[in-house]
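A note from the maintainers: we've had questions about how concatenated examples are separated. There is no special marker in the raw files; a new sequence line simply starts the next protein. For clarity in this README we add a label.
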Amino acid sequence: MPIERPAPLRLVSSNEGPLTLELAFRRYAPYVAKVALRLLGRDNEVDDVVQEVFLIAIKGLSALREQDAIKGWLATVTVRVARKKLRARRLKSWLRLDDAPDYEDVAAPGASPEERALLARVYAVLDLQPADQRIAWTLRNVEREKLEDIAEICGCSLATVKRRVAAAQEAIEEALGDA
C-alpha cells in the first residue's frame, strides 16, 4: 500500500493567494527573531527559538483559518518558547552553569554607550525576575504591545498582566534607583 504524502500546508488568503509554510517563514521569521531577542536579551539563543517556533508552526498553522491571525499566533508561540528558555536559564544560573550575559545586541544600532549600559542594567534586573514578569514587562515596554494583546499572547487575564508589568517595573526602579 503506497504511503500518501500530506498536501502542502496552505492557509486561505483573501488577496495574496495561499500562504505556504515557506512563505510564512520568510515573512515572519524576522518578526519572531526580533521578539525572541527582546524577550531573551541574548542573540545566541534567537536562532534556536526561531527554529523551534517554526517546528511548532508545521503542525499548528494548518489549524489557522485566516492569514491575519498568523502574526499573533506566532507571537504567542514565541512567548511560550522564550518562557521555557528563560526558566531553563534561571535554573542554569542557580546551578552556576550559565555564561555571563552580553546584552549588546539588544540595543538599537545608534544607541549611545550610556543607553547601552542602562539597557544592560535593565536586562540584568530582568534576569532576576520570574519569566512571566519579564515577558509581560518586555512586551509592554520594549515591544509597546497593548495590555489586552499581552494578556492574549500570554494566555492570562488583563489584571494578571498589569500585576506582572508593575512587579517587574518596581524591581527595575528599585535596582536602578536614580539611573
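[label: protein 2]
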Amino acid sequence: MTSQYIYFIIFFCIAYLILTDQSVAKGVYLLTQFARIQYEKLKWWIFYNPKNPIVKYLMWRNSMKIAKELMKEFENKNK
C-alpha cells in the first residue's frame, strides 16, 4: 500500500465528515478563514513593518521625493 492510498483515505474521511456533519463543515470553514486572516496579517507586517530594511528604504525614497517637490514649490513661490 503506497502513501497515495493513505492520503486518499484520510482525504475521503475528512470529506465525508464535512459533507455529513454541519458543525464539522462550519469548523473547517472557520479554520480556513482563520488561516487566511493570519496570512494577511503576516503579509501586512512584512510589507509595512518599519524595522524591515526594504520598507525603510521605500519610506526614505518617498520622503525624499516629497521633500524635492516641496523645495521646488517653495523656490517657485519665493521668486
